[in-house]
Amino acid sequence: MTTTDAPTMPAYRLIESPDRIYAVDENDIELCGAYRPNGHSHFCVYVTLRLSDRLHHVYATTSQAAREHVLLLAELATGGVR
Fold first, then answer.
1. 3-state secondary structure the chain
2. pTM higher than 0.85, yes or no?
3. Domain tally for the chain?
4. Residue 49 lies in a domain
5. Cα–Cα dist 78/64, whole Å
6. Residue 30 lies in a domain
7. Which residues constitute the domain of residue 34?
8. pLDDT tens by residue, 50-81
9. What span, in angstroms and rounded, lies between the C-alpha atoms of 55 and 17?
10. Ramachandran angles phi, psi of 13, nearest 5°
């Protein structure tokens, strides 16, 4: 008997705009994200109460760093794949 690895789909998706990046689960409920405050060059990374009731104090200096941080949080929250 042979087994094949079925392609796995992420249990979340990323939604991006120039000043905001956020991850939603398969039910379109926001998990975490990052936003650029008006007039600033850094991004503030946050988690929703769905993930934690504690504040998440992280600042990312680039949009790519913010994106990677949001991806990591979303993977940890959802187990990565469905």
1. CCCCCCCCCECEEEEEECCEEEEEECCCCEEEEEECCCCCCCEEEEECCCCCCCCCCEEECCHHHHHHHHHHHHHHHHCCEC
2. no
3. 1
4. yes
5. 21
6. yes
7. 12-78
8. 888 888 779 999 999 999 999 999 998 888 65
9. 23
10. -135, 155
